[in-house]
Design goal:
The protein is of the alpha/beta class. It is built from 10 helices and 15 strands. It starts with a strand and ends with a helix.
């Protein structure tokens, strides 16, 4: 997968089949769009393209309201990994600024989709809007097909549990600890990727722990508690237990205990895939924390992954 930072270097993509959006989570709805984009790219001997944004538009447009406390399902690195696994050919990451937000929908289509990329097909999801004040949508794309020499296509909304899938709904499920529901919406496991550090454990009755510092502050975390996870380190994957821990200064920490006598390589990043919440919050100052963690470890060891 090729990654471009802006449009200047993305002028030579062959017969681009393009979609656009934040694609936070790369969830089941996003994958439906990407699958269609890939299918059309194959049909026209072209390449699939996603135009996405950094930072998230809400962070720029509504810094004191909707964007102030916005947490994202994926870090930028995690999102790019998921997009590559989805089989995407090209990602164009646009720096989202207030100036960029003032581009009208027709300017975006004319100057970028047509003049720069020479798009063959433009695919959007259900109820997708773009351009200044979200004035553009599928109707406008449909009307501009002949004028700007591309085909437009809209993908219907996707449902899980008879509910419309959205990044907002997934964030709510994760923050409330409903990991299995979030995973169903995502169509893959919720993940945390990071480089582990040794975490000092003074009590020998506790399992060995490592800490995973988060690379981005806006990464959403599940509610505090103990979670059954699988851990990928290099070519190895194994069972583990992750503790989302809230310390006294209210900064969430991710602590990981691994099983199967596997030694974590603290020099390389690992990927933690969350399967299920086992127990609630852990207070390390409480003597009962040891028994809770050890019981959780036994329960997780018996789970079939």
């Amino acid at each position: 997968m090729k990654i471009f930072r802006g449009f200047d270097e993305a002028k030579n993509i062959i017969n681009p089949v393009v979609t656009t959006g934040s694609f936070d989570g790369v969830h089941i709805g996003h994958k439906t769009i990407l699958n269609r984009v890939r299918m059309l790219a194959d049909k026209y001997n072209g390449e699939s393209v996603l135009i996405t944004f950094d930072p998230h538009p809400r962070k720029v447009l509504y810094p004191d309201t909707a964007g102030k406390d916005l947490k994202l399902i994926n870090s930028q690195e995690e999102k790019l990994d998921l997009l590559e696994k989805a089989g995407l050919d090209n990602v164009i990451i646009v720096e989202f600024t207030r100036e960029f937000s003032k581009i009208t929908s027709e300017q975006f289509v004319r100057d970028i989709l047509h003049d720069i990329l020479h798009s063959r097909v433009v695919v959007v999801g259900f109820n997708h809007h773009f351009g200044f004040n979200k004035e553009g949508g599928y109707k406008q794309l449909w009307d501009w097909q002949e004028k700007y020499h591309f085909e437009a296509e809209e993908i219907p909304e996707q449902e899980v549990y008879h509910e419309t899938v959205s990044s907002t709904r997934i964030r709510e499920a994760i923050s409330e600890g409903y990991i299995q529901r979030a995973n169903a919406y995502l169509d893959h496991y919720y993940i945390i990727k990071g480089k582990p550090e040794i975490y000092p454990v003074e009590n020998h009755k506790l399992p060995a722990l490592v800490k995973i510092p988060l690379t981005e502050e806006c990464k959403i975390l599940p509610s505090p508690g103990i979670y059954a996870v699988s851990v990928k380190s290099g070519s190895y994957t194994f069972k583990g237990m992750t503790i989302i821990y809230k310390s006294q200064n209210s900064i969430s920490e991710v602590l990981l205990s691994v099983f199967d006598e596997f030694s974590i390589d603290t020099g390389n990043k690992i990927t933690i895939s969350f399967h299920k919440k086992i127990h609630g919050a852990v207070d390390f100052s409480d003597v009962r924390a040891i028994s809770k963690i050890n019981l959780a470890k036994e329960e997780i060891s018996d789970l079939i992954y």
